[in-house]
Amino acid sequence: MMNLDPNRVLIAPSLLSADFSRLCDEIAAVEEAGADILHLDIMDGHFVPNITFGPPVIAKLRGCTNLPFDAHLMIENPDQFVGAFVDAGVNMISVHLEAQVHLQRSLALIREKGALAGVVLNPATPPYGLKYILDDVDFILLMSVNPGFGGQAFIPSVMDKVRELSAMLRHGGKRIPIEIDGGVGPGNAAEVVSAGATILVAGSAIFNHPPYRNVIDRMKEEGKMAQGGFAYA
Ligand code: DX5
Ligand code: ZN
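A: This is the predicted complex of the input protein with D-xylitol-5-phosphate.
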């Protein structure tokens, strides 16, 4: 199983904004440009008003890269598909707190299948619901847009939620990285990292602005500067 270092700023390009007719080339290009993780947005047309791709496509893409695959499941009944995503080569799987009633069971299932387990919160969902499942999660994904589409604007109130969650994790002695997704790019990388996020998802900021290396380098630089001397023990 992969290891997530909560002290390292990691850049995760979201494939949603890539050229879908050249997925393998696009993935190789972001890997070459210094990406750390590949973020895969899985949408079912029910939980969110859009449809993307699923395990058969991911299984083919597994051969294009060595980057860890991070599947963000925006789907109803995620438990039904966890095994298929792991078999397709996914290393991190996150499920929405809002998508099902038995969250702990979903997280345990993800770990049991051999992937890192994440919980995702929509912008309006408070972080307090996470308190009793922290031992079951490997990372927490905070949405900074309403999920469904790339290219939306960062919702400013989420910045406070990142701070609150980060404080809650530190006080509880939990070394759980916070991932942030939606409207993130060079313009706000410093701010989200100083708030406490370390895994930065970026779709349109990277894929709509080649060369990819420039954007990824800038985000890493800004993130590292903002992180300053802070580190988990
Ligand atoms: C939205 C997805 C995001 C999206 C981010 O539902 O979860 O991962 O691709 O795209 P940008 O970075 O363009 O906001
Ligand atoms: Zn996403």
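The pocket of zinc ion (ligand 2) is lined by residues 14, 39, 41, 72, 181, 201 (CB under 6 Å). The domain at 10-228 is CATH 3.20.20.70 (TIM Barrel).
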